[in-house]
Amino acid sequence: MVVANAGMTTWANAWEIPLQNWDETISICLTGAYYTARAAIPTMIEQGTGGAIVFTSSVAGLRGLPLLADYVAAKHGVTGLAKTLANELAKYRIRVNTIHPHGVNTDLKPGIGERLQGDWEYGSQYLGSLPDVKTEPEDFAAAVAWLASEEARHVTGIQLPVDPGRTNR
């Protein structure tokens, strides 16, 4: 099993993101995921036992969330990379999936909720359907563990939201 999990972002309008920040976000989120896969896949193929690769994308890899253009672009790229690899690696019984968290209780981007409080233009795009629910790292880890398990042996090429209903909006 391989898990590619990395993230960083900038908080700004797309046209105001410093180029250095743009490059760093793409490098960490997308290029890092590619390097992880590139390093692991030959060994997985050589072993001949199949396996699972799980990429951490984000709800931002499914939607165009405002003020996160670098992150959105990178995570959409991760989603596309995983879909391609799912097709290329199926003949080796290597499953490739993405998980799409939103608002996991980590320090990646603290304070987004506070920044958007009262901002009806953007704030509603960050709300979930389930009230008063905060996704904890353990919730995210359980989704990864399931995708990597034998219970998900028939699951490949999917995008699994772990997002208290945010992709429904």
Describe this structure in words.
- By secondary structure, the protein is an alpha/beta fold.
- It has helices at residues 19-47, 69-89, 112-116, 137-148, and strands spanning 2-4, 51-56, 94-101, 159-162.
- The chain has one domain (2-168): 3-Layer(aba) Sandwich (Rossmann fold).
- The protein is built from four helices and four strands; from the N terminus they run βαβαβααβ.
- It has a four-stranded parallel β-sheet, with helices on both faces.
- α1 packs parallel to α2 (69-89).
- The longest helix is centred in the N-terminal third of the chain and has 29 residues, at 19-47.
- It is globular.
- The protein starts with a strand and ends in a 7-residue tail after the last strand.
List the helices and strands and how they pair.
Blueprint: E1 2-4, H1 19-47, E2 51-56, H2 69-89, E3 94-101, H3 112-116, H4 137-148, E4 159-162
Parallel strand pairs: 1-2, 2-3, 3-4
Helix pairs in contact: 1-2
Helix content: 25-40%
Low-confidence stretches: none
Largest sheet, strands/sense/barrel = 4 strands, parallel
Rg estimate, integer Å: 16 Å
**What is the rounded distance between the termini?**
32 Å
Shape category: globular
Question: What's the number of extended β-strand segments?
Answer: 4
Compute the number of structural domains.
1
**Secondary-structure element order, N to C:** EHEHEHHE
Which architecture per CATH? 3-Layer(aba) Sandwich
Mean pLDDT: 86
CATH topology: Rossmann fold
Percent of residues in beta strands: 5-15%
The CATH class is identified as Alpha Beta
Number of helices: 4
- Indicate the structural class: alpha/beta
User: CATH superfamily, please?
Assistant: NAD(P)-binding Rossmann-like Domain
Q: Taking strands numbered 1, 2, ... along the chain, how are they ordered across the largest sheet?
A: 1-2-3-4
